[in-house]
Amino acid sequence: MFLIIPQVQASDLITHKQRFEIPEFTTFGGKTIKQLQVGWESYGELNADKSNVILITHFFSGSSHAAGKYAPSDEAVGYWDAIIGPGKAIDTRRFFVLSVDTLVNFNVHDPKVITTGPASINPDTGKPWGLDFPVVTIRDFVNVQKALLESLGIQSLYAVAGASMGSMQALEWATAYPDWVPRMISVIGAGQSDAWTVAALEHWAQPIKLDPNWQQGNYYAGEPPMAGLTAALMLLTQQALYPDFFNQSNPDHNPLEAAPLNDIRQSHQVVNWLRDMAATRATITDANHMLYLIRASQLFLAGQDKPLAQAMQQVKARTLFIPASHDLLLMPYLAKQAHQALLKAGKTSNLGLIVGPMGHLDGVTNISQAAEDIQAFLTQEAL
Amino acid sequence: MFLIIPQVQASDLITHKQRFEIPEFTTFGGKTIKQLQVGWESYGELNADKSNVILITHFFSGSSHAAGKYAPSDEAVGYWDAIIGPGKAIDTRRFFVLSVDTLVNFNVHDPKVITTGPASINPDTGKPWGLDFPVVTIRDFVNVQKALLESLGIQSLYAVAGASMGSMQALEWATAYPDWVPRMISVIGAGQSDAWTVAALEHWAQPIKLDPNWQQGNYYAGEPPMAGLTAALMLLTQQALYPDFFNQSNPDHNPLEAAPLNDIRQSHQVVNWLRDMAATRATITDANHMLYLIRASQLFLAGQDKPLAQAMQQVKARTLFIPASHDLLLMPYLAKQAHQALLKAGKTSNLGLIVGPMGHLDGVTNISQAAEDIQAFLTQEAL
């Protein structure tokens, strides 16, 4: 998901980015990453018995900045600030809320993000990894988070919650480490990447690979593939939205504009609008990081070792799925499939819904619609 | 629309491709195309007073081969053979049904297609037009059809019907030449390309333009941009479909395949499946033709001179709109907008629906669902 609307508002939370390092990390695929570093931040206080931890796992184009500000003068707040904070649905007066920048993070050139991926220096060569960086999976994101939690003396979660690719991590937590997870919230989520989703994600990779500057991923000494990356972000942006919002944002659109009518090389204004947004965003990301995020999302199968119906049998959490009515990227049927698989396995699962004009992005911008459901869910006893 | 499932069946119709030439054609944008040629075919017989003509306008990736076979030994029949033929909804015992290859046709390298576009030789230079070919619009497709009809002595239609980009031509006919059109049928259609649709179509153009072989459209003396064209066709194919069909077609899909897990350069099987289909189809098309078809579709505004609500006032036809329930490419709201605009203008408009698992493509593969509605519609008196 590609967040194009920073939520500018007041927040009572001030947080700061911290750094966590793993000297040698072994991926799910069996490869080694040395000197792995990720950033993390937290809101609220860890209680004495470390029983009040809620982990927030972030979406494709997101970071660990889930709530609050880094400084009172910041314009934007974290993406789920509407539900995380003192007195909010995820109440930081009660919970210690923690979030971690993923591996191969999208916002690698954002100074507030700390991540390790193909744009990082491989300690063994002194050069950027490029495509020698190992393929990483949703399980790897989870395992890095688990290592961080353990370094803080934490042995279990109160809950895990995430949107979109964050929902994949949340369900992966509940499936791979069921003793850690009594409550799981999946927003605009899925239990696995079905054939449709795997193919849909591939379209984001193709413009990058076609850009002659991509050079099979070895572009770090030269010009990065900005045209391909921008095209990829244009597609991602549109697929995370829905026509209602898109058309409302372009009220003066006229299909028969003079420039594209008179010159095949010119574009409609709405195309230029989309391209300008994508080009701006491209300056803080990295094309190879995007390819690795696409692959991690494509490979997602909760539990990572058996069909979904079987994997759901090992979940011990109460679960809450909240799809968005107009989602074109991870359509509601995906959340419903995981929910149904859990019910069939005899688990306690709940299904909510966010109704909005923005499509997939409603899982972020309209999360306040789900605030009451989330708040009520968090009051329920562990099973 | 990208037809991936040839309808293999018997047909009672045999047809043949004919050639029509316009020595000098002036586009809507005011440019000149010399020695314009298009192919056309027909089913049934023109009656004495030439009052039984039904024009079928084709979709983005289609041709004039709407029904029948060129030879009894052909495997595939025309795309709407289910509703065009003796005794069928569009009954060729009664009607003279005619269809025309569009300008800048998608299937330019199909020996059965005759078209003029950027891959054609510009008579003034003796070289392929490339991007010097003028931008053409849906009105230009209509004007070529009108010139052909007039060359046959035809002065009005009994009806015009088309799917997808064909629906644009059908409504353009009814709006630009209302005295010609007493009945219009729009399947999986739209009244204009809204901001969402213009941007959605642009994503098909981008992989082509990123392919280094594209060379700003001047590739006819060298290697064509097949990688970019294939990527574009992969996207077009998926957007014309829906998850239900897509997932049913890949029953063995496993998100956690070994090849893409172990190597970032490898793809999932479903991606290879989609790529193979697209690469095959790419051999009969042309990258620049696709760019010009995208542009013609982006520029579509019925009537091409005023807002849709006003333009619909000049329509004299009874109209029938048949969206497909699961269409992700031209969602049903687009057909409903045009239908509502006609009702508001005091016109007689009808709204049907095709319900199916294939998405946009249901307008072709499941057209038999609408056969009764179409048959009944064609019995109605002109207004």
Automatic annotation (TrEMBL), chains A, B:
Subcellular location, record wording: Cytoplasm
Pfam families xrefs: Abhydrolase_1 (PF00561)
InterPro entries, alphabetized: AB_hydrolase_1, AB_hydrolase_fold, HAT_MetX-like
Family: Belongs to the AB hydrolase superfamily. MetX family.
Entry keyword set: Acyltransferase, Amino-acid biosynthesis, Cytoplasm, Transferase
Enzyme Commission number, as recorded: 2.3.1.-
Active site, UniProt feature: D327
Record flagged with keyword DNA-binding: no
Source taxonomy: Bacteria, Pseudomonadati, Pseudomonadota, Gammaproteobacteria, Alteromonadales
Species of origin: Bowmanella denitrificans
Secretion signal span: none
Gene3D superfamilies: 1.10.1740.110, alpha/beta hydrolase (3.40.50.1820)
Sequence ranges assigned to domain AB hydrolase-1 in this UniProt record: 132-235
Statement: the UniProt record of this protein carries the keyword Mitochondrion: no
Name of protein: Probable acyltransferase
Superkingdom of origin: Bacteria
Principal location: cytoplasm
PANTHER family membership: HOMOSERINE O-ACETYLTRANSFERASE
Record's subunit section: Homodimer.
